[in-house]
């Protein structure tokens, strides 16, 4: 199931606001509709990532659901989000490097 | 398709002589998106809470299972909100560093 919107010009799964997706062609000639689509698409990418990270981090951070979210679990969730984004950026950066050095992708996989 | 006769006034209540009102469309789209997000949340919450609370499936949900599911739902929402806040903070930080 695809979890990403945008048109591929964004920086992978960080879903960041750094590269707004291109809405060219969508919304036709109406700039306000185009802007609306850009904004909503970005919001949706944010939402999708929250869904995804909540699911992943739940597995790592939640034992038995109690009457409240204790501070240890809460810290775990916050760390989990940060480390997930770090992982995503790490992967992108390393991929960029291995492409630049022109070694075959499969070569770098066996590192 | 949409023609170029919308101008820039939105939400005028559809008095545009039969043309589509972009403001209305945008509102409808927002509603659709909200519904889709709620469904997504519910689906994942159901999955997680079923896993946490239901052992060997019996003939009905017993009291402890129901209590567990109720607590699980609340904790899932807490988790979702925590993740949302943490992610938002991280995005702000990234933007500030650009």
From TrEMBL, chain A:
- List where the protein spans the membrane: none
Q: Where is this region: Disordered?
A: 1-32
Q: Which intervals hold domain Tim10-like? A: 36-97
Q: Which GO terms describe its molecular function?
A: metal ion binding
Q: Which InterPro entries match?
A: Tim10-like (IPR004217), Tim10-like_dom_sf (IPR035427)
Keywords attached to this Swiss-Prot or TrEMBL record, sorted alphabetically, are: Chaperone, Disulfide bond, Membrane, Metal-binding, Mitochondrion, Mitochondrion inner membrane, Protein transport, Translocation, Transport, Zinc
Membrane topology, as annotated, equals: Peripheral membrane protein
Under the heading Gene3D superfamilies, the entry gives:
Mitochondrial import inner membrane translocase subunit tim13 like domains
Q: How does it assemble?
A: Heterohexamer.
Family designation = Belongs to the small Tim family.
Q: What is known of its domains?
A: The twin CX3C motif contains 4 conserved Cys residues that form 2 disulfide bonds in the mitochondrial intermembrane space.
Q: What is the name of the protein in this document?
A: Mitochondrial import inner membrane translocase subunit
Organism, by scientific name, is: Irena cyanogastra
The gene that this protein is the product of is Timm8a_0
Automatic annotation (TrEMBL), chain B:
Is Cell inner membrane found in the keyword set? no
- UniProt main location, coarse: mitochondrion
Matching Pfam families: zf-Tim10_DDP (PF02953)
Q: Which Gene3D superfamilies does UniProt cross-reference here?
A: Mitochondrial import inner membrane translocase subunit tim13 like domains (1.10.287.810)
- GO cellular component term, pick one: mitochondrial intermembrane space chaperone complex
GO biological process, alphabetically ordered: protein insertion into mitochondrial inner membrane; protein transport
Q: Which UniProt keywords apply?
A: Chaperone, Disulfide bond, Membrane, Metal-binding, Mitochondrion, Mitochondrion inner membrane, Protein transport, Translocation, Transport, Zinc
Q: Where in the cell is it found?
A: Mitochondrion inner membrane
Task: Give the multimer and partner information.
Answer: Heterohexamer; composed of 3 copies of TIMM8 (TIMM8A or TIMM8B) and 3 copies of TIMM13, named soluble 70 kDa complex. Associates with the TIM22 complex, whose core is composed of TIMM22.
What family does this chain come from, according to its entry?
Belongs to the small Tim family.
- Describe the task this protein carries out: Mitochondrial intermembrane chaperone that participates in the import and insertion of some multi-pass transmembrane proteins into the mitochondrial inner membrane. Also required for the transfer of beta-barrel precursors from the TOM complex to the sorting and assembly machinery (SAM complex) of the outer membrane. Acts as a chaperone-like protein that protects the hydrophobic precursors from aggregation and guide them through the mitochondrial intermembrane space.
Q: What is this protein called?
A: Mitochondrial import inner membrane translocase subunit
Source organism of this protein record: Irena cyanogastra (Philippine fairy-bluebird)
């Amino acid at each position: 199931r695809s979890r990403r919107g945008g048109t591929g010009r964004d920086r992978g799964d960080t879903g960041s606001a750094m590269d707004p997706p291109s809405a060219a062609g969508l919304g036709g000639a109406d700039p306000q509709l185009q802007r609306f689509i850009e904004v909503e698409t970005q919001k949706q990418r944010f939402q999708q990532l929250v869904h995804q990270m909540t699911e992943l981090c739940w597995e790592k951070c939640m034992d038995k659901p109690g009457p409240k979210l204790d501070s240890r679990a809460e810290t775990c969730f916050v760390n989990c989000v940060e480390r997930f984004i770090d992982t995503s950026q790490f992967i992108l950066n390393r991929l960029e490097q291995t492409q630049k050095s022109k070694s075959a992708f499969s070569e770098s996989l066996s590192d | 398709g949409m023609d170029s006769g919308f101008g820039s006034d939105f939400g005028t209540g559809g008095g545009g002589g039969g043309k589509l009102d972009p403001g209305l469309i945008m509102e409808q789209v927002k509603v659709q998106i909200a519904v889709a997000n709620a469904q997504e949340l519910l689906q994942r919450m159901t999955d997680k809470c079923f896993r946490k609370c239901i052992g060997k499936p019996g003939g009905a949900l017993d009291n402890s299972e129901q209590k567990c599911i109720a607590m699980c739902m609340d904790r899932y929402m807490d988790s979702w909100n925590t993740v949302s806040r943490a992610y938002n903070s991280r995005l702000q930080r990234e933007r500030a560093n650009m």
